[in-house]
Amino acid sequence: MGGAGPAIVFEDVWKLYGSGPAASPALRGASLEVESGTLTALLGPSGSGKTTAIFLAAGLDVPTRGRVVVLGWEVSGRSEGWRRRWRRENIGIVFQFFHLVPTLTALENVVLAMEIAGRPRRGRVERALELLEFVGLRGKADRYPQELSGGEQQRVALARALAHDPPLLLADEPTANLDYANKLRVVELLREAAGRGRTVVFATHDEKLASAADRVIRLVDGRVVEA
Amino acid sequence: MKAARAGLRAVLARKGETAAMAAVVILVMFAYGFTSLAIENLEGHIYLQMRESLGDAAYLVPEAQAGKAEATARRVGGVASTSTRTLYTATLLYHGSTLMVPIAALDELDELAPASALDQGRPPSKEGEAALYLVATAGGRLGPLARLAPGDSVEVRVYTSGGPALLRLRVTGIYKGYSWIAGQPYALLLGEVPESMRGSGLALVAATLEPGLDVASKAGEIRDALEREGVRVYGSIVNTPETNPILAQVRAGASFLSVPASLFLALAAVLPAAVGVVGVFRDLRTAAALRAMGAGPWVLAAYYTLPWLARALLGVAASTLLVAAFADDLYYHMMAGGGEPARALAERYGFHLDPRPLARAALAVAALSLLGALAPLAAALRVNLAAALRLGGAPLTRPPPRRPSVGPLWARAALRELAGRWWKLAGMILALSIAWGVAAAMDSSRSGLEASASLAEERLGSVVLLSVAATTPSPPSPACAEAYRLASNLSSRVLALYGEDSANTLRGETVSVRFYAPIRGDASLVFPLAQGRYPRSPGEAVLSVQMARLLGARLGGEVELRAPSGESVTLRIVGLADTPLNRGFYVLASPGAGGLFSSEPGASGCTLALEAPEGAARLLQERLLATGWLTPLRVETGGDIAASLRNVASVLLAVQATLSAIAGLAAGAALAGLALADVASRSREYAALLALGAPSRALLASQLVQLAASTLLASPLALAWARLAAGVVAVRVAPVVGYYPPSLEPSLLAGASAAAGLSAAYVSLAAVVAAYLRRLDVVGLLRE
Predict the structure, then answer these.
(1) pLDDT tens across B151-176, in order?
(2) Domain limits of chain A?
(3) CATH of A37-62+79-226, one of 3.40.50.300, 3.40.50.1000, 3.30.450.40, 3.60.15.10
(4) String of DSSP letters for B169-225
(5) Testing the interface with B: which of A99, A100, A124 to mutate, by most B Cβ within 10 A?
(6) How many Å lie between the alpha carbon of B784 and the closest alpha carbon of chain A?
(7) What is the pLDDT of residues B378-422, one digit of tens each?
(8) Pick from B399, B409, B688: CB nearest A99
């Protein structure tokens, strides 16, 4: 059930991949809270559980044990269909590898997110152009993804994630494949997105980029060591 | 060779793919290997059996002249040995049809059909009793007499020294063996042949030649010598594997099995191509990473091609063992029905496990699977590695055109896929053209039979065809002349023809060509001329239009053929006839071209064609039977010929359905491979869209839109290619079925089958794609 309070709550969350003796834990009893309207960085080295935490918060996956409450909704234990519908309304996601649709232009990729979320047809293109303007790519609206640089693709992905105006934006290593100038630009955009009253959480292994966030949650070996 | 090791490990690791490939190879190789070996052994057995009873050349002469004939033959230089066997024939009226049934004494059975055994009942022990002999092939069900059982009675008409006589016989038992007797799959065995029949039979004088001689020319020399001595030769056979018309007929019949079995081999290429390409796209970044590390074609081949070759070889080894272990027993069971005849057949001739058909099949399977496995290699080599690594999925081959488009974005994305990944369209054209090409080729052959059936109905409206045989050489009047005389009393338009078959190779296929010589009457009754005139001299001939079309022969040209006499002859084509008979390949020679035949034309048999009012045919049959020595064997009208053609067409329809199903299976596998390769190549894109909340039915709809659009685009090219390929295949199939391929007009049936097949394939594909999307590991894909 939705409502006010922390945007994300993890209570003793465990996530195991595989089964039996070969099962490998990605999260080991992680507990954390993310305040609404903030920009939060999940900081940790590779394999620390950042991506797993992002995916659990997005309802892409469910914990093996523990509770995950996002925007006031208990998402652990929900069906896949419920989580997909809920995600469509409430979550924007940016992936490490962008994952844009190669046969749609930058503009169309952004419009697509609105189409998926069932936003009214009228005004979709205008909003997509505004978002491309926001990420500095209005001039490249009719380019296909493969005609854009990595940084540009990631900015289109960010615009796509914001297209249906979700209250929570989750970004999994959004800067991992970018040069330093683009890293800074993307983090700057995430801050601006959070500044509009939205909760933004991004995963990174870069201390310097994490320091730009309002709050840093440090993960090591699947455990929250500093929140 | 780490890549090779990795590739070979994949054979063990991906058990499903290994099992599927091995199973397909075992199936196709066993089908091809066993069929080829069975046909080869059958031909060998027939030849050897005939050589044992007929030697290199055999002559049918009156029983009374047998001694003189054998002595004459023995005197011809190069003849190593001779033998004589007397044959008696009875006419049996059975369930409304007239059958010629060989008659022999029980104590001759061992010589006529070695190793025969009593299967039911008891041997005949007194006058008025007979045992029935049946060939055990196909469980002893060949021919109408297979319905007789011990205790049944039959009436047979025989010719005796006192004229025609009627014998009533009670069947006491049934013998079975693997040999045919006097060309029939049945015979009646009496305790003793009645003394009154002695002298009225025919004798088969067999000559075995010294090795190394030209059998055809020596056989002609013997025949000339017999005729010089006044011996009447009623028939002869030159028994070499090339000239034996029975072998030609066996080969043509066997093609109904061997052609589908050969086409079946193509499945060995389809599976590696379809599943292999899916594998590349499923794990695209491995291909990209290997190439990024500098891997060239050989390393990629070791990783993507070698496993399929290894799987194919696994299947080859398994099927070779299976064929080696079971082919002989399976063959004996088919040919002699198991039990004593099967054991005797095995002991007498054995089963030659010729390694060549298996080697051919193994090579074909290896080559085809290698060819198929080049598809994943090509896919891996074509991957734009930088883009694949950067985008995390399959990049477009080229960006789609930047044209403004309308409609939902799902549909737009799907349609642009077609432009961006053109190889899928090319694959679809290939798959559809295979499916439609084979179906069109078979359909054209089948409709060729239908066209011939219509021709028979149209041209032979009131004409009756009647084949007549003489059961005895006495009285010594030529059968055809006597039959013509009786027929002309009943009709003003009569044609008496004499015909014999010869084995010929047309367009690379051994087929049976029927040579006719008109004895008396109006040739246009059966050979209405389409062009030219009728032959006047022995060097001239009229060809059936079907045969001329197949050979590409023209009026005024020459054609070289093997005549029934065994000799090769060159004939000038003076006319073409639209022959409405039930076979495709006819040569009408001049009345005086007796030298083309192996016997005296019309002496022992004849075909009568007459324009007869209703009831005349029945009357003619009665008058022929009343002679006591002429037997009306078969009466046919245009309608009967049409019906028999349509029966063959229905068999061909079953073959067509089988072949089309095989082609459809191959095309379906290719289409499924394309669809799955497509979904696999876009799996990360789909995973991301599902993560954004897109419903999977929208993704499925996008796939189906793409499939439908690509089918619409591919169809015209696929149809054009299929039509071209079908023309080539139809010409190859024509000698097998004996009819010319007509123009490839798409029939309603073919269209409906293609549409039904395509719909079924697409429904299955939709289910496969839906299942794939449901099982998509969204988290796993997005984490990579």
Answers:
(1) 998 888 887 777 778 888 999 999 98
(2) 37-62+79-226
(3) 3.40.50.300
(4) EEEEEEEEES--BTTBSEEEEESS--GGGTTSSEEEEEEEEPTTS-HHHHHHHHHHH
(5) A99
(6) 9
(7) 888 876 555 555 555 555 555 666 655 556 777 777 777 777 777
(8) B688
